[in-house]
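ERR on first pass: missing label on line 2. Operator R.T. fixed the label and resubmitted. Corrected input:
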Amino acid sequence: MKLLAFFGAIALNVAQTARFAIEETGREITLLGSSLAWLFRPPFRFRQFLIQLDFVGVQSVYLICITGMFTGMVLALQGHIAMSRYGAESLIGGAVALSLARELGPVLSALMVIGRAGSAITAELGSMRNTDQIDALASMAVHPVQYLVAPRVVAATIVLPFLAILFEFSGMVGAYIIYTGQLGQDGALFINSIKDYLEPDDITHGLIKAVVFGLILSLVSCSKGFHATGGARGVGLATTRGVVISSLLILASDYVMTALMFKPST
Amino acid sequence: MIRVNDLHKRYGDQKVLDGVDFSIQRGTVTTIIGRSGGGKTVLLRHLMGLESPDSGDVIIDGENLSRMGDADLNRIRRRFGILFQEGALFDSLTVAENVAFPLEEHTKFSKSEIMHVVREKLGTVGMTGHEAKFPAQISGGMRKRVALARALALDPDIVFFDEPTTGLDPVTKSAIYALIRRTHQQASTTYVIVSHDIRGVFSVSDETLMLWEGKILAKGTPEEMERYPDPIVKQFISGSPEGPIHVD
Ligand SMILES: Nc1ncnc2c1ncn2[C@@H]1O[C@H](COP(=O)(O)OP(=O)(O)OP(=O)(O)O)[C@@H](O)[C@H]1O
Ligand SMILES: [Mg+2]
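pass 2 clean. output:
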């Protein structure tokens, strides 16, 4: 009997979580719908857009360069371990380029941007909600979604592919330094193997992913902040959930997109 | 004119508004009083269309806010000036930028015309010289005054004040009432004030409504309210600890 109650409770919990998740997805989709709708209604908030472009994009440049660099350096070392077993050290450049372009560039830049900008967006909108600033906007006949959400979503979606490219480039620089320095290999081999292996599709697929990630992370971060209630604690909670949910969604959608764009090489 | 019909609102199982009915004539100053947590802010939020009622209507000049889309709401809200209880200043903007915000959004004024209006409005609330500060750098009472300047920036026809004088010193308080009286003289502006400061608001209001347990329990001119026979109203206005109202 107790066991039954136990499983009953679990089932109820799962059902509640599912309902919660569905409600939440519903809210995100509503917000997506209204930000898209407000995007095309004048006035476009160009100034707000530039501010966000600067915040999400320009101010992330250092972080992306550094994380990209370290990622490339690690890839070169790990690549060496793997490739040297087959005597294929000359392929390291291509392998690093491929993994950066298709996968690590977009995914890691997105995760870094979530940590740096997504969390800040949630916290900022959340405290605006909790101090009536969002209602104040609405009451002054300025649509809060148009003023606050649309510029952030557009900026993040546009800027993420650029950050991903920057990540990839810094990664390649890092890998090259390790390849020619620590590993003492010939730099020309590195460049040649990139030329041989990297195809335009690798880059475009990565960029498509980056665009989708930018959209996801900005929508989730905005929506969590926009609907944050419960004061400072509520804002903290919303920020945590924004970071967790957008990271999970990015990894899940990464799988889905990879599977959709997957063509076994011949 | 503002008309409220049988307004109901509950949060969870707490009934906050339970059949509120009243109307406010154009060009008057109306005060809503009632105990803390009694639903005055909630009622005000309904009047501004920020909250949608469970049932009932808010009608402003023949237009029903409760059944309105965003675009129509925005058209009506352009006529509003709103002072939030906590000010709700944009903390990423300076004092001057906060007051300039509605002007930039809704007028075609040049930069210098806007600066002129901003300086004038900040002057009327005694905030000259603090233009470049951010909301976090000024006191609570100062924030309230800046918020008041922002609410009045567009010379709106309908102004909602949520506790315009709480947290202000007595001199500033009477200056705010003087300001309310003065700005109100411009024809046909309608002021709706929520306040606990009964003496103060009686000095500016044409009519007072008392919100009690989700309904309008009493309404009348200040003189009528002073002589109101209902023991609850009597006790509330005199502020006596003895009577039917218990603080629990
Ligand atoms: N969003 C909300 N969710 C749940 N309950 C709410 C919400 N907003 C208001 N309430 C409840 O409604 C009641 C009325 O709140 P309201 O802020 O209108 O009081 P008030 O009359 O303005 O009080 P005060 O004079 O202290 O400002 C309170 O009990 C509050 O808990
Ligand atoms: Mg209140």
